[in-house]
Amino acid sequence: MTYAGNLESSDSIQNKNHNFYAFEKADICDKDAIKRILFQYEPDVVIHLAAASHVDRSIDSPDESIYTNIFGTYNLLEQSRAYWMSLNGSKKDDFRFHHISTDEVYGDLDEGCDPFTEESPYAPSSPYSASKASSDFLVRAWQRTFNFPTIITNCSNNYGPFQFPEKLIPLIIMNALKAKNLPIYGSGKQIRDWLYVDDHARALLHVVLNGKIGSTFNI
Length: 219
Fold this sequence. Notes:
alpha/beta, Rossmann fold
């Protein structure tokens, strides 16, 4: 987990036995760790949300975005594919690799432009969005080359409890509560979609249970 993921937010679930989950702190780029986790827990679905996700930080220091989002996705794909190849029967037929991406891959939405759709061309405009676009293409390549059962969803900006305070919505709320100036970027006329994290989670579950292999869905 990166700084924005705030490991302290997971204190209540770490190092505790639970019937519904097991918590593992691991590096997505660590081949041996990912392999061990997959073969130990034998998942029916891999939902890939791990990412370095801050646009400004990707501009100041692109290394983390490139390494985590591209190499990390490659590593997770390869280890998941090796695990999938070891499966048999319905367990193999029903397996899914669900890659979570971003609408940032479509570029900037200017005033008066139509909303993005699943058919919108990719036009990433930052190291972060370029790294996520690259990871999308890796996932598609693994599906087409190896018949690996993948699905991609591209989501808009998420917000909700425990979000890191540098993100726009918690930053606006905190500044307002402290009677401080609200941050305005550029002209302030940019268009953004916002998605509550619980709604996103429900959408991901629906897609992974009902989505067609090889499909891409905007959320």
